Amino acid sequence: MPELTFLGTGTSNGIPVIGCPCAVCASTDPRDRRSRTSAVVRDGDRTYLIDTATELRLQALAAGLDRVDAVLMTHAHADHTGGFDDLRRFNELAEAHLSVYADASTAAMLRERFAYAFVDKFPFYGGKPDLTLHMVEGPFNLFGREVVPVPVRHGRLPIIGYRFGDLAYVTDAKTIPPASMELLRGLDVLVLNALRERPHPTHLSLAEAVAIVEELRPRAAYLVHLSHELSHTAASALLPSGIEVAYDGLTVRSRGA
């Protein structure tokens, strides 16, 4: 059954935010120290990285991550791709190319920004990322597991979440189309973004995320991509039973296949 570890749960600024004196940024609660949002899914003997956050190296060290079998990209914003070059260490560890999955627009941006990662230049691994890019156009097979892409809207930008069996991961959404809501039914575990209490043009607010969870009714839901407007304790106090605030390093498991 899939197991997910939250490598990072914060916004594009990370928390603490540079130069910010607010109570959350000054908090001594370790759950309020949020690096940029990303996760790792362990499914049997395979390990999948979702996004390459800016702090990927530090996240991998903290989580004891020493193997990645595939990388699944949600979109190409800098906080989700800033650690892309650190994939080269996983090439070196495996002595093999690494597969990256992305939709067409994200793939195009990755090729533009990291062109060197998709060209074989060196006769050894580790000097740079050595990657094989796969276009996500619908459900695909990943080492025997069907992975279902879940299209959502990050403001006007179309991006994708991913479903692995009865576990799904969606970040940076503002709206979830009806067809994608259907893809998220029958879940054991749902991960969903919730930026803050106030509305935001490109991210779900806390109340909007709660409404989606209450419609989908997974067994458990975990919120990510929180800003420094909400401490872990304060956000948790606003949530109904069955919905929790994730934090960096938390591991959750689905109960089904």
Structural overview:
With 257 residues, this protein is an alpha/beta fold. It is built from seven helices and 14 strands. It has one domain (3-140, 147-253): Metallo-beta-lactamase, Chain A, CATH 3.60.15. Helices cover 21% and strands 27% of the residues. The N and C termini lie close together (5 Å). The strands form two sheets. The protein has a seven-stranded mixed sheet. A seven-stranded mixed sheet has the order 7-8-9-10-11-12-13.
**CATH homologous superfamily descriptor:** Ribonuclease Z/Hydroxyacylglutathione hydrolase-like
Structural class: alpha/beta
State the CATH topology.
Metallo-beta-lactamase, Chain A
Q: Which outline best applies?
A: globular
Alpha-carbon distance between the termini?
5 Å
Determine the mean pLDDT.
97
Low-pLDDT runs: none
**Count of separate structural domains:** 1
Helix content: 10-25%
Biggest β-sheet: strands ordered side by side in the sheet:
6-5-4-3-2-1-14
Compute the CA-based radius of gyration: 17 Å
Largest sheet: 7 strands, mixed
Number of strands: 14
**CATH architectural group:** 4-Layer Sandwich
Strand content: 25-35%
Helix-strand pattern: EEEHEHHEHEEEEEHEHEHEE
Name of the CATH first level: Alpha Beta
Number of helices: 7
